[in-house]
Amino acid sequence: MRKIAIAEDDEKLCREIGTFLENNGYEAAGLSKEAYTVTGILAEKPDLLLLDLGLPGTDGLYLCRELRKASDLPVIVITSQDTQMAELMSMSQGADDFVTKPFHPQILLAHIEAVLKRVYREPETCELLNLGKFQLDLAKGTITAGEERAELTKNELRILDCLGKHRNEIVSRDKLITHLWDSDLFVDDNTLTVNVTRLREKLKSIGITDVIQTKRGLGYMLVCDMESI
Amino acid sequence: MRYGVYLRERLGQLLLLTGVTATVEIFLLTVRAHVIIGIYTAVCFWGLYFLFSYEEFRRKKIYFQHIMESLAGLDKKYLLPEMTGRPGCQEEALLKEILHELGKSMGDHVNYYKRTEKEYKEYIELWIHEVKTPIAAGKLMLENHPSEWSEDLKEELERIEGYTEQALFYARSAHVEKDYLIRPVLLKDLVAQAVRKNQKQLIAMGAGIQMDGLEEEVYSDEKWLVFILHQILSNSIKYSDKEKLKLTFTGRRERERIILAIQDNGRGIKSSDLSRVFEKGYTGSRGRQSGQATGLGLYLSHKLCGRLGHGIEIDSREGEGCVVRLIFPRGSHTDTVRP
Which of A52, B187, B205, B234 is the 20 to 30 A CA-CA neighbour of B309? Predict the structure, then answer.
């Protein structure tokens, strides 16, 4: 599990980022005010640092520069300074990424994932999602059931990804649309229906039927019988 | 300055001189002096007077002419005291001192307001940066502790964020030059960012979004442009008939420009309002009806577009939606200077 250190002086925000990261499969460590130093940060042995620029008693940019001298720890700067100048300064002081407040939580998560992936080059095995009777390969965008295989379009892939992460739960249409929009696929209600229908057809073509159920008025549900594997 | 007027203003001197001449002439008559002497004395008196007074008039005329010329040539009229040169007599010295004092006092006055305005602007910017932290914390709390109100509250937070950002850009709009960075940006990225800012509202409305030809690259400041697009989108949302909002983004390359058109199918703008939508505080009849309009969105967009060197046009027919076009001039030479 990746450990993420948070240097943010607003206690509530620090705590909430921590909870949010823990809910999403990371280990989070909120740093205390005394620990806003290079040694203090490195003592936590984090895999990534979220750094606020406006820290009391020190300067985020300075900390970032000093940290770069001592370690290759990836740093994502979080700041309310939304000027391009601030971004440029952060990047030139060695930050890996830059997120402005008030960030969309999912966007922060996406930035963290991207930086971690780039820095630690995680093996791609986790890209294979096992959904009971069939597997979804997120990297290749295909579904496989035994020898049978089908290619998915971008939209279908994102829909199945979202349903797969919440398997055996009802996922509302709005939630699916939001998930698609987060990946720059701006579909509307009708398109979603069409895509789900196509997805069902593709699943049928590899011999899988009735896994996506429509819950009228509520949304869709992916039924996976994990026992059957 | 005219000599005639100058003399009329010195009527007292002329009367006095007439009196003196008359007295002297009467005296000369009583002592039975020769007529020639009488005439000679009168001519001497009047001649000398006109000689001196004309000389005085000429000097003053040159002086004021010089001042008037400098004044006409000055861009900043209040710098006049610096231009009047070395004073030739004590009157000019006095006048110069008066002008100087006047300018100084006005300068202090203006500086006071400049300082107040700057302080206020700094305060607003600081306040906005401060308020972003609680907004971010609030968003995370809703994400971490979902309840039945989460989605609605998220939508409200998104709106607060939008208004806060508008205030920030308003405070900055007077001094855009200070924090912008012109870089090539893809229209697709810009549109995606702006759409995402309004995501909650758009999804809740079941909006349909179409994009076409957005692979074009324009030179602009990303932050400012996303803000402008965000304002335009907010308007489309505000003035839509809730059901089935359709937004179409089209990029088009023309000879010397790239056009990004944002079209909606909302209520549109009355043709009588159309010419005034870029005015500050102008809300139009629609805006007044809904009470939501601030009259700032398009005003700011227009102003910022001007600063960035982009054009902005709006076209609409009532009941049929409206289309806003952003125009990015593109000199053919920009392609050659690209690295």
Answer: B234
Q: Does A130 touch chain B (CB under 8 A)?
A: no
Burial class (CB within 10 angstroms; exposed 0-12, middle 13-18, buried 19+) of B205: middle
Mean pLDDT for chain B? 86
Q: Is A189 on the interface with B (CB under 8 A)?
A: yes
User: Quick check: A82 contacting B, CB < 8 Å?
Assistant: yes
B327 and B187 co-located in one domain:
yes
Write down which residue in B88, B104, B120 finishes a domain. Answer: B104
Asked if residue A90 lies in contact with residue A98, where contact means CB atoms within 8 angstroms, the answer is yes
**Residues of the domain holding B213:** 180-337
The model's pLDDT over B228-241, given as tens digits with 9 standing for 90+, comes to 999 999 888 888 87
The stretch A41-70 carries a mean pLDDT of 89
B203, B242, B246, B264: best mutation site toward chain A, by most A Cβ within 10 Å? B203
The ipTM assigned to this model is 0.71
CATH code that applies to domain A126-228 = 1.10.10.10
- Cβ distance B209 to A186 less than 8 Å, yes or no, reads yes
Whole-number Å distance between alpha carbons of B65 and B71? 10
| Structural domain boundaries in chain A | 3-120, 126-228
Q: So what CATH class is A3-120?
A: alpha beta
Looking at the partner chain, which of B129, B140, B181 has a beta carbon nearest the beta carbon of A105?
A: B140
CB B249 within 8 A of CB B262: yes
Phi and psi, residue A166, nearest 5°: -115, 45
Residues within 8 A of A (CB atoms), B 216-255 only: 221-223
Domain end position, chosen among B82, B104, B126: B104
Vertex B69: Cα angle to B67 and B74 (nearest 5): 95
pLDDT over threshold 70, residue A227: no
